[in-house]
Design a protein that fits this description.
2 copies of one chain form a homodimer. In chain A, about 60% of the residues lie in helices and about 10% in strands. Chain A is mainly alpha-helical. Chain A has a single domain, classed as Winged helix-like DNA-binding domain superfamily/Winged helix DNA-binding domain (Arc Repressor Mutant, subunit A, Orthogonal Bundle), CATH 1.10.10.10. Chain A binds a DNA duplex (30 and 30 nucleotides) through helix 4. Chains A, B: InterPro entries: HTH_MarR-typ, MarR/SlyA-like, WH-like_DNA-bd_sf, WH_DNA-bd_sf.
DNA sequence: GGGGCTTGGTTCAAGTTTGAAACAAACCTA
DNA sequence: TAGGTTTGTTTCAAACTTGAACCAAGCCCC
């Protein structure tokens, strides 16, 4: 079958999106690197842990939430561990597992970095959008994410074998 | 002044956006890596060159369009050059300059990869959006990009010193 | 017309990401 | 309960990215 190319509207949207997200990610990364000494992805690790019960999450769980590969997370947590912001513990009831725990120092670092981060997100994104647009943004990307990971199982999702796992594991088995 | 945190709506939008774009970029990268042997950023280099007059663009120009750093582009073009998809030439009227040219082989590779790429973009993004949402997406990210690079010069843009350059240089001086 | 600043591009080291193994514990199931 | 598969995590090499130098060539201007 012959390719269904993008319509002019779709092309414009696609290009705008690419340019926008590259600049956006860049601005965020730079700000965090400067003020917190870590890239966005690492900040997200701290942020995610801080919201988890007991500030702890199993590696696979964390990877799932971050939409990151396991090996990426391993590397990142190792680095954060060296910095004393995160600690690794063994999973009680599953000797294979390992759990990342946010240390007090990690929490402090996070709280320290948060205001600057939020300011950036605001000035770069939300200050430029109307309330309706905020809703539209949520709607659009929720749909995209659902399609890509939700067990909706169409062609596009087939390529994401390992990104679908989950295993509630913060409290009791 | 105390931090203006994100509203619940903004938080939801921000999280949805993060998850969505990570999954999206991931799907795109994987598809291109598989079928064309290169990441999205490299594909974009070929695509941009293919649309330029004479299929050639000065390095800085190309970097500007790609929203990439110069050093990143240098590395990428070197790789593509090794693969024979791009060639470097000296800029005629500015002995400092160097120009990236899409080779015939590069064009062929691009044309070969394009259908699969478009299919992915469709299935992952546009097939899930209504026409109105396509318009909203364009609008939102156009605003973001303009704010971040446009010479609108507010605080957020201060951090992007080198990303603003431009120097029309494809045709005559 | 010789400093001195700017611009275009590359280089280099350090950090990060990727995907494909490798490993080990857990879970079947015959 | 031994053997095979699945699941959780790490390891490893190769690829990529970053930011800070660095080197030239243009530009200014006295």
């Amino acid at each position: 079958m012959t390719t269904r190319w993008l319509t002019p509207e779709e092309q414009r949207a696609w290009r705008a999106y690419i340019a926008g997200y590259l600049l956006l990610e860049d601005a965020i990364d730079r700000q965090l690197q400067q003020e917190a000494g870590m890239p966005h992805a690492y900040y997200s690790i701290l942020a995610n842990l801080s919201e988890a019960p007991e500030r702890r999450l199993r590696m696979t769980d964390l990877a799932e939430r971050l939409k990151a590969t396991r090996s990426r997370l391993t590397y990142a947590v190792t680095r954060l561990e060296k910095d004393g912001l995160v600690r690794r513990e063994d999973c009680e009831w599953d000797r294979r597992g390992s759990v990342a725990v946010l240390t007090d120092e990690g929490m402090a670092t996070l709280e320290n970095a948060a205001p600057g981060h939020v300011d950036t997100v605001r000035s770069v994104l939300f200050d430029r959008l109307t309330p309706e647009q905020v809703g539209q943004l949520e709607e659009i990307f929720t749909q995209v994410a659902r399609g890509l990971q939700g067990d909706g199982g169409d062609a596009a999702a087939e390529d994401l074998p390992w990104r679908r796992r989950s295993s509630p594991c913060s409290g009791t088995p």
